[in-house]
């Protein structure tokens, strides 16, 4: 019960519920004010304008949010006017539907925020069918009042922003820490769950993409806000938490170890890994708790448990050495020591977040130049050229726009010829659930139908209990607020609440609520069926056929990240910024590849061409980026020796192999030549360096020098990690080259 109350508190304090309240205020105030002023007949138009322009109000820079809502206002006004003027003329109306459906849906090429503006425009097109205005004067008044409603919502949003200026950022930071905490706990399971690693990796792919999305939005919000208004203590606190979350994410990536080697070294002695696994779980749970406290503002719990767990992880290294004995225990001990170092750094970053949350003043110590921060922003291209480039069947969004347009026209004609009451409910269902991906459309369709049935059942129950108009009004507004709050997190619940809201709104128009419920359910099923069938039959866009560009970008960014790590090894202070930018680009690219693979799993089994091969490619890319991150993180956090000539030779070899993988998928590039013999010699020399240091240490032990000094330990750690990780990266790159060549052959055979 206590946990449920805590979750309820987090929801009520969340920015999602806050946006629901904004919509509720935007709807209720015009109704109330215009009622008391005696102009109640104008209220529905103002409320429609408010409702239509709320979707663009998402976290991000204030400038982009305002621009999105203003564009949305103009777009919805124009579309509503076109549909209302065209309604008396069937041919003209069909042309208008075709043009609006296609062009407005294609606006999504400009990114997520643009897709919400597009959604508002398509929603306006559908709702225009519910508006009964016939004369030009009535239509213009309706459109003007909708514009007023949109501007009114912008004012409401601005006021809420001023009252709680950092709520969106806090929510984003909270969501990010929650996801990273879950991610860290999943990584812990990989250490010992040998038989479940494939399943765990698929879960990790999803979390990675979600974390990258949160980080991207936070970069836009925090860095652009910093440029606009300068620095404040609270903003510095948020920036410090954000940067620590990025460091934690990289550290977790860096601890994606060579599990095959771990299995070989530890075999049946997995108990020595349990302390590290437990520490990961505890740190993950602590991050989740900190994510909750960002919203709750309660007292931060002490970290004694984490410190004790870290101490036990350190003791497990000694226990392993005492059990297995040196020199046989050296490789396992070094692996445990490297893992311990990462976890120690993770704990330092968690403590940095704790300090920022406890004392805002300490956050002012952070320093990040504006010109540096701008390099981390992923700028969205808004030129007309982007739209024109997508006017091709090769574009996934172009095919979606064609498919969507045909589905809308078919649904409208179906309603027209069969005289279906409220045909626009079918159109509304198509607008809401139809997505470029078949899998997502199918999932949303299922959730929409189930949610509609649940909402209808609840509405029936309420109608049987009471026929009170006041109760209906309160439930209509309350359910709409909750639906808008939940629509991103739980679409099924949102669909149920939307159904409840619509049923009670229509109960004012049609006293027979059961008839309203019946039509609502039937129209939802019809619209969902049309959407799913259209996605399957019309210009289908299967993820297996759209993977090439995402894969090419992942290979390109992995190679860029690898080369940036080489530069970092040469001069850490000089190349730290370029390394961080390359890291961000690589993480985003692998996140997009993981998301594409996740969409592939939602497609019909018959359309998942070369599924196992694609999974292998995704896993290899994922493992490679983790291995690179491991080297980069070690270089940043340890005093290292100068990078050897052999290291450079191997980096060049791996880079060339990655380029060959790129060429395999994109044959237009010139084939890259290999340098196998030179690389093999370089690998042998790196391994021999570690062996020399090991022999020296063995000799020292034989002479009675049991204590290991820090310099020798770091030297052994560096030699062991670099030698093994370079060997690992070579193996990964070779396997990646083989799998991409097989992938290219499968593409050629499939044509």
Automatic annotation (TrEMBL):
Q: Does the keyword DNA repair apply?
A: no
Compartmental location: Cell membrane
Instruction: Note the topology in the membrane.
Output: Multi-pass membrane protein
Integral membrane protein YccS N-terminal domain residues are 70-345
Sorted alphabetically, which keywords does the UniProt record give? Cell membrane, Membrane, Transmembrane, Transmembrane helix
Keyword Membrane assigned to the entry: answer is: yes
Where does the UniProt entry say this protein principally localizes?
Answer: membrane
- Annotated TM spans: 21-40, 66-85, 90-110, 116-132, 139-160, 401-418, 453-485, 491-509
- Domain Integral membrane bound transporter span(s) in chain numbering: 411-533
Q: Which domain of life is it from?
A: Bacteria
GO cellular component terms given for this protein: plasma membrane
Q: Name one Pfam family in it.
A: FUSC-like
Q: Which family does it belong to?
A: Belongs to the YccS/YhfK family.
What name is this protein filed under? FUSC family protein
Species for this entry = Psychroserpens burtonensis
